[in-house]
Design a protein that fits this description.
284 residues, alpha/beta, TIM Barrel, eight-stranded parallel sheet, 10 helices, 8 strands, 13% strand
Length: 284
C-alpha cells in the first residue's frame, strides 16, 4: 500500500488561517477529499494521513468526518496537551481513524521553552500511553531542543515533520549534523515532506534538494522515513506530481523493500494502518 503520510484538508477562512499570508493566493480556497483523490490515483497512492493545520479541536472533528469519506485516510489532529482535563478530551475525541496529534511548536513565541514545560511532558506521556503518535513541527533552529524532548518520550512513535525544516542555504551536511542526535533515536521517524517550500523563494530544483534526501537516508535509514506531499501547501512551489517525482527519482537506486518502506510500509507501521483483512500490515 502506497501512502501519502502528510496532507491537509480545510475550509478556507482567512480569520482561521493566519499563517496563510496575502501572497499565498493558491492556498486561499477550500481543499477537500474530492480534490485530493485524483492526485493520489495519478501517483498510484492508495491512502493518506490528513494532518491538522489549525490548533483547534473543531478542525480535528472535521478532519475525522472527511476521513470517513475518503478510503484509507487516517487523521493526525490537534489537542491541548497542557489541558488539565486532557484525559476527558481524549475520551471525547476517540475515533477509529484518529492516529495521533500535532502541535505547531514552531509558532510558539519560545519553542524551546514550550517543549520543556512540565505540563507538555505530562500530556505527551499520556498520549503515548494511549498509543497516539506525536508529530513535531519545528525548524532547524530547534532540532537540539526536539532531541532533548524526544529522549524523554520514547514509549511510542514521534514523527519529525518536513525534515525539521532545514536551512537549505546552509547545505545538507550542516542539517545532517543538526539532526544526528534526533535521528539516532529508534522511536523517531522523519517525513520526506515540505522540502520544495523550504527552498529560498520557492526556487527549488532536484539538484538543490536531493542532497537533503540523501542525508536523511543516511541519518534515518529507509525504515524510518515516510513520503509526504504536504499538499496543498506544496502548491506554493510545485504541483503534487512534481513533489512525488522528486522523491521517486531520489529513491531510484534503493532496493524494492527500501522504496516500499518510504512509500507506505513505514507509515503503515507508525500509524497502525490495516490491510484488506483488517490485519496490521506491520508484522513487527
Amino acid at each position: 500500500m502506497r501512502i501519502d503520510a502528510h496532507q491537509h484538508f480545510w475550509r478556507y477562512d482567512a480569520a482561521h488561517f493566519p499563517w496563510i499570508t496575502e501572497s499565498m493566493t493558491r492556498l486561499q480556497q477550500d481543499y477537500r477529499p474530492d480534490d485530493l483523490a485524483p492526485l493520489l490515483a495519478h501517483c498510484e497512492l492508495q491512502g493518506s494521513i490528513a494532518v491538522q493545520a489549525r490548533q483547534c479541536v473543531a478542525e480535528t472533528q472535521q478532519l475525522l468526518q472527511w476521513a470517513q469519506q475518503q478510503p484509507a485516510t487516517q487523521v493526525v489532529g490537534w489537542i491541548d496537551v497542557t489541558a488539565a482535563d486532557l484525559a476527558e478530551q481524549l475520551m471525547a475525541l476517540q475515533h477509529p481513524l484518529l492516529r495521533g496529534f500535532r502541535h505547531q511548536v514552531q509558532d510558539e513565541q519560545d519553542p524551546a521553552a514550550w517543549l520543556q514545560q512540565p505540563r507538555v511532558s505530562t500530556g505527551i506521556t499520556q498520549l503515548q500511553r494511549h498509543d497516539y503518535v506525536w508529530e513535531m513541527l519545528v525548524t532547524w533552529r530547534h532540532l537540539a531542543d526536539a532531541s532533548r524532548f524526544a529522549a524523554q518520550h520514547d514509549r511510542h512513535w514521534l514523527v519529525l515533520d518536513h525534515l525539521g525544516k532545514p536551512d537549505i542555504a546552509r547545505g545538507a551536511q550542516a542539517w545532517g549534523e543538526q539532526v544526528a542526535e534526533l535521528a539516532a533515536m529508534p522511536h523517531v521517524v522523519c517525513k520526506l515532506s515540505g522540502l520544495v517550500t523550504e527552498a529560498p523563494h520557492g526556487q527549488w530544483s532536484s539538484a538543490l534538494l536531493r542532497p537533503f534526501i540523501d542525508e536523511a537516508l543516511a541519518r534515518f535509514g529507509p525504515q524510518r522515513l515516510m513520503f509526504g506531499s504536504d499538499w496543498p501547501v506544496c502548491l506554493l512551489a510545485a504541483e503534487y506530481h512534481a513533489v512525488a517525482q522528486l522523491i521517486d527519482d531520489a529513491l531510484a537506486e534503493l532496493s524494492a523493500d527500501e522504496q516500499a518502506a518510504i512509500w507506505g510500509n513505514t507509515a503503515a507501521q507508525v500509524y497502525s494502518l490495516t490491510g484488506e483483512n483488517n490485519e496490521s500490515v506491520f508484522a513487527g
